[in-house]
Task: structure prediction
Amino acid sequence: MIEMRLPLSLPPELMATVPAPEPAPLLEELATLRLENAALRAQNAALQDRIRELETQFGQNSSNSSRPPSSDPPQAPARPKASPSGRQRGGQPGHRGAFRPLLPVEEVDEVVVVVPERCRHCGQSFPDPAGRRRSRGWRHQVVELLPLAVRVTEYQMAGRRCPACRKRTRANLPAGVPRRPFGARLTAVVALLSGRYRLSRREVRQLLQDLWQVRMSLGAVVRQEQAQSAALAPVVEEAQTAVQQAAAVNMDETGWRQEQQRAWLWTAVTAELTVFLINRSRGGAAVEALLGADFGGVVGSDRWSAYKRFPAERRALCYAHLKRDFQALVDRGGEAESIGRWGLAEIERLFALWHRFRAGEFDRTELQRRLIPLQARMGRLLRHGQENPDRRAVALCRELGKSWAALWTFARVEGVEPTNNVSERALRPAVLWRKGSFGSNSEAGGRFAERLLTVVLSCRQQGQPLLDFLVAAGEATLRGSSPPSLLAAPQGG
Result:
């Protein structure tokens, strides 16, 4: 405390305006209050930040996070609807209607000619049409199922006694006949009902009995699944090898349960193939197990850390995920909102350019040229975002800045798109399977899920008849011949 000494010559009126010296206890209390105030301010800022984080988590939905639309809470904003066009519902003028084309007459199993006997207007009987040439009438075809039935074949293996050694020899089953009591087509149908249409094993058993009067135990249903899984093992192995040599793949993963433990179902999608793999890890080891250690192509994905093992030049980040991240900044509010709105505007412009490119309005060189100003704005956005007071905005923009090259791979590499939607769509049947079965209870069950999903999705990509492929794989195993391949398949719708 500074002691003040005033000259004795000051007038009394000035002496009244000079503050009296503060006692030491008051100054000490003031210092204590200032420290407490600073601590309370810091605590309040931390609590405000925590409240914002909790509100952000509570406000997550399918538009601002990776949550599926089915998990949206009631308070989630309504999904955007298309603007009303003013047209009436249904087919529009000029729309080419969908109809079932008639089969040629030579491909019809039965032809029934129906001739009118009387005039529907006046009731006059028509003369006998015999011997007269009939005009071509109106054709109507009815498609009907034949009575469902099964064929049971009994093989009686005779035994004969050798005249030399006097020992008996029993005949072996003919080549291609399974030792189990069910044929390749029935085994394929069981696997199809269980793996493709996601029926429970009890429902599969009941359906077989209702439609074909085939009685099968639950254990037999499982054995047919495993028989089909074994038949598909070389098919899936060949497909995975092809994916590991592809120029570009899209990858994604979703949660799974195997043997009551946490696991992940991974998928890798190319233009012709979709391969699945269940792995205990969600890290780089699972990526290497699916793509191999020496994968040299481009990987399209989200920004999960497991994909950072690839350099940015060989990655393609998903703008659909990025759009949700910027929307999350908008919903977060505060200083982050402006960064989120800026990012959403640039992504909307990017998709507009991409759709025009896909429509054939300009070539790839022109696409790259038109992206130059957008890239410049995105660069400014990321620099501003890294200076934003909101830590979420800083983290997002800093991460994107480190992966800058991966944001524009779609413009440089043929066959790469700006979203990872193709792999997300591939996972949807698997997610429905997981929700119905809660995963797989054994290693063998996991392999069955991997292989069925791989063949189902790949056959759909290639337009191959799924049941015929499953039957061919089962018959090849019984005959000991080469299985069908997913690589040299005819492309179709």
Observations:
- The CA atoms of residues 66 and 385 lie 22 Å apart.
- The mean pLDDT is 87.
- Residues 24-58 form the longest helix (35 residues).
